[in-house]
Specification:
Blueprint lengths: L6 H21 L24 E3 L7 E5 L5 E5 L13 H4 L4 E5 L16 H14 L5 E6 L1 H12 L4 E7 L9 H10 L2 H6 L2 H9 L10 H10 L5 H17 L13 E6 L15 H11 L3 E6 L6 H4 L1 H12 L1
Parallel strand pairs: 3-4, 3-5, 5-6, 6-7, 7-8
Antiparallel strand pairs: 1-2, 2-4
């Protein structure tokens, strides 16, 4: 039997670790700690580029509302993000439609409490939001985790949807019990709250086909948020959301989605399929949805990663406009 703790193997591991560290440093451009001395950023003070409002009630939801039109597009962000992640997409969509981008409970400027953060919880909260806004039908546009919430919403409240847009959605790729257990263990509160600048930038980099310095606002936002007293509550919401996606799978319910749907994804999505558990091609994941969902069309955006609404906003917006028309 091999001794993996032998001096030889330990030296080899050290060399591999050093090489990995050097590679990471090269990939992120040895950027240093440019935001380390900046003051804490209150979640309520995050600049989305738009004025935000808040609903009343037990769980206030923050939202952006702009544009006019006979149709309403409801934009729902993904894991660990907020309504500001739609900032490059909103302007084009708002030329033709009323656009509302929400902060899910636990995220951004919305209420952070001891909630279940299940997929069903989010669907219920969105329905209550629509009722407060007197909106009978919307085009639901969900990114990543927001896509799985959209699938859950479509199953629970089909009459509230005019159409469903799933942008690089979670909830299509399936995970075995052992894989789900591994995924749960990957996310810990201390790692979310204490990640260094290089790690944050490297993690964000995985969401893109090609990183651009104009995305630095995401790094600054995350670094400064981590200094805020609300950060542990946000980290809790993120961890609970990961568990919720695994506990509320929609993969085996895709054939029950009756609303006309669009799945739009980046050709070079580095997160779907999960690169550690299911190496392969993003197109293969969503081809299975095409075979299962009764009324769905697929659109692939070339040279684009997971955050397609940020990396290719014009192309992304136009595909949505064409679909809604």
């Amino acid at each position: 039997m091999k001794n993996y703790n032998s001096p030889h193997n330990m030296k080899a591991s050290s060399r591999i670790g050093l090489i990995a560290l050097i590679l990471v440093s090269v990939l992120i451009g040895c950027s240093g700690y440019r935001y380390a001395k900046m003051p804490a950023l209150s979640f309520d003070d995050i600049d989305y580029g738009y004025v935000t409002k808040k609903t009343k009630g037990e769980i206030p939801i923050s939202y952006i509302e702009t544009g006019t039109g006979t149709k309403t597009l409801l934009l729902v962000h993904g894991l660990a993000s907020n309504a500001g992640f739609w900032r490059y997409t909103i302007p084009e969509l708002a030329k033709k439609y009323q656009v509302i981008a929400i902060d899910l409970p636990g995220y951004g400027k919305s209420n952070k409490g001891d909630h279940s953060y299940s997929m069903d919880f989010y669907a219920t909260q969105i329905n209550e939001f629509l009722e407060q806004k007197n909106l009978d039908k919307v085009v639901f546009v969900g990114h990543s985790m927001g896509g799985q919430i959209g699938l859950t919403f479509a199953l629970k409240y089909p009459d509230k949807l005019e159409k469903l847009v799933l942008a690089a959605p979670a909830g299509v790729e399936s995970f075995k019990p052992g894989e789900a257990k591994w995924l749960r263990n990957v996310f810990r509160i201390d790692e979310i709250t204490a990640s260094g600048e290089e790690i944050i930038r490297a993690n964000l980099n995985r969401n893109f086909y090609r990183w651009d310095d104009k995305y630095e606002w995401m790094v600054e936002e995350r670094i400064r948020m981590a200094k805020n007293q609300e950060m542990p509550a946000f980290a809790h919401a993120v961890i609970q959301s990961v568990g919720a996606m695994l506990d509320g799978p929609t993969t085996n319910k895709l054939d029950q989605i009756k609303v006309e749907s669009l799945i739009i994804y980046g050709e070079n999505d580095g997160l779907i399929p999960n690169p550690f558990l299911h190496p392969g091609f993003t197109a293969d994941v969503f081809a299975k949805a095409k075979e299962t969902m009764p009324d769905v069309r697929l659109v692939e955006i070339p040279k684009c990663g997971h955050l397609l609404q940020i990396e290719k906003p014009q192309i992304f917006s136009q595909h949505i406009i064409d679909f809604v028309k």
